[in-house]
Automatic annotation (TrEMBL), chains A, B:
Entry keyword annotation includes Oxidoreductase: yes
Protein name, as recorded: Pyrroline-5-carboxylate reductase catalytic N-terminal domain-containing protein
Regions crossing the membrane: none
Superkingdom of the source species: Bacteria
Keywords, comma-separated and alphabetical: Oxidoreductase
Residue ranges occupied by any Pyrroline-5-carboxylate reductase catalytic N-terminal domain in the UniProt entry: 2-107
GO molecular function, one term: oxidoreductase activity
InterPro entries: NAD(P)-bd_dom_sf (IPR036291), P5C_Rdtase_cat_N (IPR028939), STEAP_metalloreductase (IPR051267)
Pfam family, any one: F420_oxidored
Species, as recorded: Nocardioides ginsengisegetis
Length: 225, 225
């Protein structure tokens, strides 16, 4: 499948690398590809610049949000929550029309420090905001409940764990469930319509505090039933 | 241990029964014991009246919130979220001073239907509200992330699963962790201070939607790491 991954940060890199590894053709979308490749400084978290990652992943193309999206069969939104709607806008409603958009972003607000609060919650969600703003896109919220390395390689854990899908379009959720299976996810719970994204987004406060308690983000929940 | 369970609903009944089964001396607290025993109608959910349960659990005493609490070594708050602060008030700050209060309530607001929203979240929690209102009580938030039958008998599931504790007093959390172990909980994650109750309370929106998807509340998460 031709997949556009919107976002060049750690999550975008991990998702692009993982999807490439299992045989997909990935184009990463960014606002200004030349500027993205020209940056040589580490980011605010001390991570190396995108160019360092890209030098080791030459099979992953870099293009504008719009160009990456127009050529893709499926789009993954891997940006930070505050930027999400702007990134989808830049990808272009026409380029996205009818396509599946996998939204893995979270509405985290770090303005008051760590742990962050959520800038939308409980009676609305970021997934719903994107679906409302782009009604012709088939939004599926998924993978926002675990750390990026495990999103694309859940077998790094010793046991099978659970991921979730939320979305209004059953075919789109089936497509995403197949994509998840190609990455190694063998327990996918379909929560229902896109409004159920409120559930997975509101899991983040527990995820963040569990990460704090365990001292690592390399964990995931298994729904035992 | 002598344990007061505040609340006569399905959660209070399950917790009282489970604690009795593993050898604790349990007194259930209610506003008006005579009135509670006199009710013969089913509740809003179609559950039988307390008296029917009590007839089969004669070893569990029923007393006022205050009397149940004054004689107890440890208190479990098993009421609904909206009533929680009133129930602790009725139990009495003096009766509770220095004691461990296990808060298993959740701030669920069903006024707009199902699934409920949360009436406190993200920048505060019900656990914190109780701790602030009763500074001499040692509040430990726990067990609010799973259904009542599994709170007291996690081995009903085929695999070990995870529960959490949040609280400001390390000794109180150790006491609760021992109590949890007596019920069969062998994976307890200490999330930190009482403010981490925000995490487990905000898990409810995902728990409720997972229950909807699975068609049962008989599940729990295992944190695989």
């Amino acid at each position: 499948m031709k997949i556009a991954v919107l976002g060049t940060g750690m999550v975008g890199q991990a998702v692009a690398g993982g999807l490439t590894r299992v045989g997909h053709h990935v184009v990463i979308g960014t606002r200004d590809p030349e500027a993205t490749l020209a940056r040589t400084d580490t980011d605010g978290m001390g991570n190396p610049p995108f160019s360092a990652w890209h030098a080791e992943h030459g099979d992953v193309e870099l293009a504008t949000y719009a160009d990456a999206t127009s050529g893709a069969d499926l789009v993954v939104l891997a940006g930070n929550g505050f930027a999400a709607l702007d990134m989808v806008t830049a990808a272009g409603a026409d380029n996205l029309a009818g396509k599946v958009l996998v939204d893995i972003s979270n509405p985290l607000d770090f303005s008051a420090g760590f742990p962050p609060s959520l800038f939308v919650k409980d009676t609305d969600s970021l997934g719903e905001q994107i679906q409302r703003a782009f009604p012709d896109v088939r939004v599926v919220k998924s993978l926002n409940t675990l750390t990026a390395p495990l999103m694309v390689d859940p077998k790094l854990l010793d046991e099978s764990t659970t991921v979730f899908v939320s979305g209004d379009d059953a075919d789109a959720k089936a497509t995403v469930t197949d994509l998840l299976a190609s990455l190694g996810h063998d327990d996918v719970i379909d929560l229902g319509g896109i409004e159920t994204a409120r559930g997975t987004e509101m899991f983040l406060p527990l995820w963040l505090r569990t990460m704090g308690a365990l001292g690592t983000g390399m964990f995931n929940v298994k729904v035992v039933r």
